[in-house]
Amino acid sequence: MKYYPVFIDIKNKNCLVVGGGSVGLRKAVTLEKCGAKVKVVSQKFSSEFDKLQTTAIDFLQKDYENDDIRKDVFFVFAATGNAGLNLRIKKRASKFGILCNIADSLDKSDFILPSIVDRGDLVLAVSTSGTSPAMAKKIRQDLEHCFGNEYAVFLTLMGNIRRKLLSAEHAPDDHKKIFHSLINRGVLSLIKKNDTKKIDLILYEILGENYLYQNLIASNNAF
User: Fold this and answer.
1) pLDDT of 189-213, one tens digit each?
2) What does the alpha-carbon distance between residue 74 and residue 93 come to, in Å, rounded to a whole number?
3) pLDDT tens across 89-141, in order?
4) Where is 202: in which H helix or E strand?
């Protein structure tokens, strides 16, 4: 099977997870983190779900019913330990044209989920098309060593610089040169070393006054 790689905006989209075990937990956490409106249906929930009670995730402790899947659901995740129930959920989702992922049943799923490295705005996705999840995990672990948290900070810096420039009606065509300069001057490695003085010096040389590192990474609010 050849899968089409894509990143999808699911902010405020209704997503349903059926299953209260560890697999359902992982699905719910990732969906909620990406801004989805998540509902989890299960007769029983593992103790791991206790830490999610303060989130916006909606928990329904009951048996799954066909009416749990409606036209306004964007994604469905069948994560129960019952293969027959998972297929029933998939059939119901298909009736409405809703994409469904079935845990541990790639051949019956509409889509599969990659192994990911999450560094803020940097998300690296690894897939072996279902042939070897263990290999995908190994590659993910290798990437985690190569791409540390400094990448998340760096992209926050770049994004806030872009917003500040746009708010000052700076010509967008000139942005490319600025960002290439920031990359080539080694700001990323300086972030890893926490050398804020050198970063501020580079920002001043490239952008001028009022571009201080700590101020730029402190907030994602528009300037």
Assistant:
1) 999 999 999 999 999 999 999 999 9
2) 10
3) 999 999 999 999 998 888 899 999 999 999 999 999 999 998 898 999 999 99
4) helix 196-207
CATH number of 1-113: 3.40.50.720
- Which phi and psi (to 5°) does residue 167 adopt? -65, -25
Instruction: Give the separation between CA 219 and CA 217, rounded to whole angstroms.
Output: 6
Q: Look at the pTM and tell me if it is higher than 0.70.
A: yes
> What span, in angstroms and rounded, lies between the C-alpha atoms of 78 and 191?
41
Task: Give Cα separations from 203 to 46, 156, 167 (angstroms).
Answer: 49, 14, 17
What is 114-148's CATH number, 1.20.120, 3.30.160, 3.40.50, 3.30.70? 3.30.160
Distance separating alpha carbons of residues 37 and 16, to the nearest angstrom: 9
User: In 3D, which of 120, 157, 150, 158 has the Cα closest to residue 34?
Assistant: 120
